[in-house]
């Protein structure tokens, strides 16, 4: 059959305007769907990535602090409690280091010291706490050595075994004239070979360190000597060549962000080191063995009983440092890590908590810039970020073994 010429011409002219517009509309809808999928996928990817960052930050903070706490009390975990002959647990330690900007360093002699976060008026307000961990690093196992003669620059021990040139030693006195005094000094020499008991801790000059084999200028002995420890009797504890006092804290959030910091050693250095970023809060408590809880401890002590059952009950976790450090058996802590991804909707509606106790251990939440919680609904609102809580309870083995 022969095709009509008019029909053939119309078919050869292509798509009509209406057909073109319909095609464009379908293409635009398809592009919108694709872009929505890409946008949602990218947002979920950023959320996942930021969640992974928070997980890494929290895990790293947990591992580092947990490892440090396990070392707490090494070298002086056998200190008897204050009130017992030679007992100086919790005394104010007088340390000195001429290499620091502020040479005199004073702090309570505690394996672990928890310093609660406070506001400008000194009121505890849930701000990140500080955790100070103190321990020695001697490679020689030595119990406390008794000394029976003393000057401002020397001590005569019952034996000098395991004490080396270059060691830092903790010196305490056991008389009643100055109970609770203690200090750190640096061993700089020993007398003639026929004296196998005396150690010197003089300032000035040089000595050959056992650890480096090189001439060393002492830095941890005050020029005037240790006058407060010139006693007839006392004890010395070997803390090794470089005892540590590490101070852990969270830098307040701000332009630089919130980071977990540590002073690598406040006895030898006053420089901060960043451990990880994204940690916004740090909280901790002491585990104190009072035998039966705070309710009956006073009655037990009044009766002359030893309130010590070796168990930390739920009521024996506290932010208050124990008067008797020998009852400190453990420390538990928690770090709060925040993701860096801002979510359009509030994804955290309730403040995170730790120790399985929402009522008593909820973190006090702050704006992202570190100010008080006051700006809900924008990028400064903590509710628009995801959080992870990492916590651990650490037995203080150097104190437990010393019981």
Low-confidence stretches: 81-87
- Which class of secondary structure composition applies to the elements? alpha+beta
DSSP helix count? 4
Shape: elongated
As a percent range, the share of helical residues equals 10-25%
Query: What distance separates the N and C termini?
Result: 113 Å
| Global mean pLDDT | 80
Number of strands: 19
Strand order of the largest sheet: 2-1-8-7-12-5-6-9
Radius of gyration, in Å, reads 32 Å
Largest sheet: 8 strands, mixed
What proportion of the residues form beta strands (DSSP E)? 25-35%
Helix and strand run: HHEEEEEEEEEEEEEEEEHEEEH
Q: How would you characterize the overall build of this protein?
A:
By secondary structure, the chain is α+β, with helices and mostly antiparallel strands. Among the domains are: 152 residues, no CATH class; 120 residues, no CATH class. The protein is built from four helices and 19 strands. The strands form four sheets. It has an eight-stranded mixed sheet, with no helix packed on it. A five-stranded antiparallel sheet has the order 3-4-13-14-15, covered by helices on one side. Strands 17-16-18-19 form a four-stranded antiparallel sheet. The chain is elongated, with a radius of gyration of 32 Å.
